[in-house]
Amino acid sequence: MVKTPRSQASMASSVNELTTAVGQLLRRLRSETGTDELNLSQLGVLGRLDQQGPMTTADLARAESMKPQSMGTILASLEQEGLVERNPHPSDGRQVLFAMTGKGADVRRKRGNAKREWLLAALMQLEPDEQRTLLDAIPLIKRLSES
Amino acid sequence: MVKTPRSQASMASSVNELTTAVGQLLRRLRSETGTDELNLSQLGVLGRLDQQGPMTTADLARAESMKPQSMGTILASLEQEGLVERNPHPSDGRQVLFAMTGKGADVRRKRGNAKREWLLAALMQLEPDEQRTLLDAIPLIKRLSES
DNA sequence: TATTGTTATACTCTATAACTATA
DNA sequence: TATAGTTATAGAGTATAACAATA
Lengths: 147, 147
Fold this sequence. Notes:
The structure is a homodimer.
Chain A: H1 8-31, H2 40-52, E1 55-56, H3 57-63, H4 68-80, E2 84-88, E3 96-100, H5 102-109, H6 114-124, H7 128-146
Helix pairs in contact in A: 2-4, 3-4
Chain A binds a DNA duplex through helix 1 and helix 4.
């Protein structure tokens, strides 16, 4: 297959498909709601704290491309359910370090998280080369969001 | 080993990244708002009517993975701005065929659509092989939503 | 009786603005 | 004066439920 860089005109027609596809996936994920009552943002924060350790509100907001006030709302809801806890920053009294609790870790590990399980099952149904394409596209989608 | 399908464990770690990436892109797109005051759903409907011709509320709702009532709201807003018009179905008095108007076509063609232009510019900044990966991933994302 | 669409209402998610506290 | 976070409010986007009209 010859490598032919896409023209701007051909890319333009893909813009609608991409936004539609992304919107569809998000609506689908949102509708998958079982025993877990965590939404996508809450799951995202929990996953990030699990991977990266304690973080501040501002850092989490930046990582998720969200306003700090919006992240504050998410963290408050997670704290109320005992999934994250707040710890003082060692040197800066203004900052608050949010950490995942044991209960939060349980929620992430346990079965019953309908959204994650649905998406995982859907991913597993793709052919191996399709999986590779989709996984390779993830960092590219992130790059788009940051440009 | 020729083909190395990803293990379920390795895929599980990608689930969070995918949802986060998709959420980020959507928030970014939503925030790009210039002279056009059309949101992503409105643009999606307009694009679909442009490509596929007149459609009913139910068909549009199915195409965008949305409830008919939600689609009705979107269509009402587009109609109020004169971007779509309603025509009776030739044989079924219950159905309404929505078609894009000339003004709707203008809006789609003209410059000033901040969301589409931003995304197009971002796509053009990717390397050709990255573009190909991302475009190849679009139908896969749709498949996920439908499974 | 089933289907298409409308109307009314409520919920989820995120943003903006104004404020407090610490640096 | 600048930054981190909180509180209050508003908005966009979508869903659910109840209804009307046509099939």
